Amino acid sequence: MSTNKSDHNWKTLDRDLGRIASFESATLYVAKPMVGLGIAFLFIILAAIASSIFFAGATTSWVVIAAAGVGAYMAVNIGANDVANNMGPAVGANALTMGGAIAIAAVCETAGALLAGGDVVSTISKGIINPESVAGHDVFIWAMMAALISSALWVNLATFLGAPVSTTHSIVGGVMGAGIAAAGFSAVNWPTMGGIAASWIISPVLGGAIAALFLAFIKSQIIYKEDKIAAARKWVPVLIAIMSGVFATYLSMKGLKQVIDITGAHAVMLGAAVGVVLYFIAVPFVKRQSEGLENRNRSLKVLFTLPLVLSAALLSFAHGANDVANAVGPLAAIVHAEQFGEFAGKVEIPLWVMVIGALGLSFGLVLFGPKLIRMVGNQITKLNPMRAYCVALSAAITVIIASWLGLPVSSTHIAIGGIFGVGFYREYHEERRARLSKATRDEAERIAPEERSRRKLVRRSHFLTIIAAWVVTVPAAALLSGVIYLVLHAAFV
After folding, report:
1. In 10 A of CB 367, how many CB atoms?
2. Domain boundaries defined on the chain
3. Which of 24, 124, 364, 407 is the most exposed place for a label (fewest CB within 10 A)?
4. Given this model, what pLDDT does residue 280 score?
5. pLDDT tens figures, 14-69
6. Residues 256, 267: Cα–Cα separation, whole Å
7. Who contacts 299 (Cβ-Cβ below 8 Å, separation ≥6)?
8. Is the sign of the CA dihedral 402, 202, 361, 63 positive or negative?
9. How many C-beta atoms surround the C-beta of residue 479 within 10 A?
10. 244 vs 104, 187, 272, CA distance in Å?
11. How far apart are CA 314 and CA 282, in angstroms?
C-alpha cells in the first residue's frame, strides 16, 4: 500500500516538474524576441545620446537628437530586411551557416558603409523633390523627419510580414509623400519618379535574365558534359575571373572615387586587370581542389562554394557602401539644416552619422536578419552553390549596367529577380526535358493539375506576395509620410 502511494507521489512530482519545464520553455520562447527588441531599443537611445555629444551646433538640438534616433531605427530595419538579399542565397545553398553568414555580413556591411559610403550623397533621395519648393527651414526639417519615420515603419512592417522590399524605394516614397504634403504635387520631380517606376520592372527582369543566362551556361558547359570535372577545371576559373572583374569595377567606381578621380573607363580597365590576375590564380586553385572528386553534380558544388562565399561578402560590402545613405541621408539633411540654418540637395554626411548608419545595419542584421535570410535562401526556390553563384554574379553585373544607364535601380529587386530568374529557368528547363521524353510526358499527363502546380520550382505564393509588396512600397510609404508630416507640422510648426 505504501509502495503504491510512493509511486503515485513520484508520478505527481514528475507531472509538476514537467509543467514547470514546459512553462520555462514557453517563457524562453516568448522572451527571446523581446531580447532583440530590447537591444535594438538600447542602440536607438544610445544613437540619440551620441548625437547630442557630436552635433556641432551652438546649442543642443532636440530635433537632431530625435532624428538620430529615427535614423538609427531606419538603419536597424535596413539591416533586418535588405541584407538577406546578399546572404540568403549562400545560406540557402548551404555554403554558409546562418551564424557564419551573419558574421561575414556584419563585418562587410560595416566596412562598406564606413570606407566607401561617405561620399557626397543626394540627401533629398536622388532629387525626388526640389529643396527650393519647400518654403522654410522648419518645413524642410519636418518633411525629412516624416520621410525617415514613414520609410522605417514600412520596412519594419515588411520585415514582420516576411517580404523583402526595397529600402531605396521606401525612402523615395517617404520623401515624395512629405514633399507633396509640404508643397503640393509641383514639388516632386516627376521625370525622376518615372525612372524609378520603370526600375520596378527593369531591375528584377534584367537581374533574372542575367542569372538565368549564367545558369544555362553552367548547365550546358559543365553539368551536362560527360567529364564534368574536366569541364569545371576549364570554366570555373573563367567564372571566378568574371566575378572578380565585375566586383573590382563596381567597388572602384564606388570606393576609389573618394580617394582619386576615377572614370568609368578606368574602372573597367582596373576590373579587367583584376579579372585576368584572378583567372591565373584560380586555375591552379580549382585544379588542386578538384583532385579526387567523383564525376557527379554533387562534386561540382565544392568548386563553387568558396567563390559564392566571397561574392556574398563583396555584395555585402557594396550594399553597405550604397544603402547606408538610405538610413542617414535624411538625417544628414536635418543635421545640415540645423547647423547652418539652410538646406541643400547635397550635403556631406558627418562621420558620426555614418557610424550610426553602419552600426544600425549590423545590429538589424544580427538581431532580426535570420527570418528574411531563410525566406530568401530557402522558400522562394531551391538553391545550390551553382544557382546561388549565378544570382550573386547577376546582381553585381546588373548594378553596373544600371549605373552606366543612369537607372535608379534597387539592389533588393535585382537580387530577388535573380532568384526568380534561376527558379523560372529551372522550370522551363525541366518542362523542356519532359517534352522531349515520352515516358516523362506520359507520366506528367497523369498528374492532376493541382499536383502539377504544387510541384512548381518557384513558390507562387511567395512570388505574388513579394511582387505585391514591391508595387505598394512607394505609394504606401508616400501616404504614410504625408500623414506623419501633417501631424508633425500641426504639432511643431
Report:
1. 20
2. 11-227+295-492, 228-294
3. 24
4. 94
5. 565 566 655 555 544 444 567 778 888 999 999 999 888 887 655 557 888 999 99
6. 9
7. 228, 229, 290, 293
8. positive
9. 17
10. 18, 42, 9
11. 17
